[in-house]
What we know:
The chain is mainly β.
Amino acid sequence: MADEEGGTRRAGDDTHRSGGPDAFGSPYRLLSTAVTPRPIAWVSSRGPAGENLAPYSFSTVVAVDPPVVGFAPVATEANPKDTLANALETEAFVVNVVTADLVEAMNASSATLDAGDSEFDHVGIERVEAARVDAPRVADAAVGLECELYDAVEVGTSTLVLGEVVYAHADESVLTDGQIDVDRLDTVGRLAGEWYASTDDRYEIERPP
């Protein structure tokens, strides 16, 4: 068995390393490599300093009734980044779905800019106005989820931002019979470091009754 600082244990023919999160480099390294692939919330928002567009890979669907999505920036209300500050100020944002054709632009939008500079302008991303919330959205995103702030929960040095989806946009190219078709939506997932994964290698597994 492992000691408290981390070590190895043998279970049958398998050898495992066990220990606290720091035993695997750091908590971030452990979680960002073990919990993969992660969907990327490419969040567009507006606030007193202007428009903002930033990707967050600590994100997921939270509920369907009401329809709520969430993302978790490493920021707090006392020390917010632009996206969190905007979401708290306007209680609105758009989650733009990242597909293979947009992954380079998404990555470029993660650059550190001066306060007030827009990632839309810096990267050359076309924006359109959201229909129901006070925020821009990425015009070329195949799917956009307009959200109203549902809640914001501080967890240590991060904040879990929950948004209720009040309106959605989906390009006709990803629809079949009016519904989003997973075979037509080439989403991209985040791995660790500078690694990403595509979703073009799909397969089905039938659930048991």
